[in-house]
């Protein structure tokens, strides 16, 4: 069974940094692209970015490219999201997801349960 | 960036009723994918590559469309189908989601 478990969320002050983790199990982690998606309270879904199997390609949504960094540790089956210069607009549930790709585009086949990040003083 | 517009924003359906949700893209996409999100839970892949049902999805669901116009249909509404449904395109970067259709039970 594919399982994705996010951790590291919590209350953080504006301007500070936070690093989220996503522990993967039930599949061969190093065979898949992985990604992050967030959802502000009561709002829709926003793609943050993705990373390929060997970390040689990382894509970000343009508005977050300078604030967020995606990385992975295949030995630990773990995906990371380093967030910096956090503002109230970054308050959201952060989901990690396993990416699927058919050559015509990507979608998100499996999702974690999410971790809530609240940016407030 | 491709903008996805879902309609209606909210709707209510009675058990047994046929339901159709639509998603329109601002530019042509190769496929559309759909997710179901029940209240307080994470999204689940529901339909991928426009018309393929994800594992465990009941066959009363179907997806169709091409180019800029796509739809998700429920043949006969059931209680468990009450949720928010999001469409998503991955043909053009960045991948984008629609704002969702909240489907309620009447």
Structural classification of chain B = mainly beta
Indicate the overall shape of chain B. globular
> What oligomeric state do the depicted chains represent?
heterodimer
Sequence stretches where pLDDT stays below 50 over 5 or more residues of chain A:
none
Distinct helical segment count of chain A:
0
The string of secondary-structure elements of chain A, in order, is: EEEEEEEEEEE
Rounded to an integer in angstroms, the radius of gyration calculated over CA atoms of chain A is: 14 Å
The largest β sheet of chain A comes out as: 7 strands, mixed
Shape of chain A: globular
Write down the overall mean pLDDT of chain B: 97
Q: Quickly count the helices of chain B.
A: 0
The percent range for strand residues of chain B is over 45%
Mean pLDDT of chain A: 97
Fraction of residues in helix of chain B: under 10%
Class from secondary-structure proportions of chain A:
mainly beta
Order of helices and strands of chain B: EEEEEEEEEEE
* Main β-sheet description of chain B: 7 strands, mixed
Quick structural gist:
With 121 residues, chain A is an all-beta fold. In chain A, 0% of the residues lie in helices and 54% in strands.
Could you characterize the architecture of this molecule?
The complex is a heterodimer of chains A (121) and B (106). In chain A, a hairpin with a 5-residue loop joins β4 and β5 (45-51). The mean pLDDT of chain A is 97. Chain A is built from no helices and eleven strands. Helices cover 0% and strands 54% of the residues of chain A. The radius of gyration of chain A is 14 Å and the shape is globular. In chain A, strands 2, 4, 5, 6, 9, 10 and 11 form a seven-stranded mixed beta sheet that branches. Chain A has a four-stranded antiparallel beta sheet with strand order 1-3-8-7, with no helix packed on it. Chain A has 121 residues and is mostly beta strands. In chain A, 37% of the residues are buried. By secondary structure, chain B is mostly beta strands. The A-B interface holds A 37, 44-47, 59, 61-62, 95, 100-102, 104-114 and B 29-31, 33, 35, 41-45, 48-49, 54, 86, 88-100.
């Amino acid at each position: 069974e594919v399982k994705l478990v996010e951790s590291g969320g919590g209350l953080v002050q504006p301007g500070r940094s936070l690093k989220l983790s996503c522990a993967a199990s039930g599949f061969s982690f190093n065979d898949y692209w992985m990604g992050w998606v967030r959802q502000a309270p009561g709002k829709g879904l926003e793609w943050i970015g993705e990373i390929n199997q060997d970390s040689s390609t990382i894509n970000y949504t343009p508005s977050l490219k300078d604030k967020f960094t995606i990385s992975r540790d295949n030995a630990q089956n773990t995906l990371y999201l380093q967030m910096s210069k956090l503002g109230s607009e970054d308050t959201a549930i952060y989901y990690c997801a396993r990416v699927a790709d058919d050559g015509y585009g990507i979608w998100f086949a499996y999702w974690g349960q999410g971790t809530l990040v609240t940016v407030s003083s | 960036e491709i903008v996805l517009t879902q309609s209606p924003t909210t709707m209510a359906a009675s058990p047994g009723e046929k339901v159709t949700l639509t998603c329109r893209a601002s530019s042509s996409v190769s496929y559309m994918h759909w997710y179901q999100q029940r209240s307080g839970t994470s999204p689940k892949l529901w339909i991928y590559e426009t018309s393929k049902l994800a594992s465990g999805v009941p066959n009363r669901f179907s997806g169709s469309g091409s180019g800029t116009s796509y739809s998700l249909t429920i043949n006969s509404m059931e209680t468990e189908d009450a949720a928010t449904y999001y469409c998503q395109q991955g043909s053009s970067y960045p991948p984008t989601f629609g704002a969702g259709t909240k489907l309620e039970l009447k």
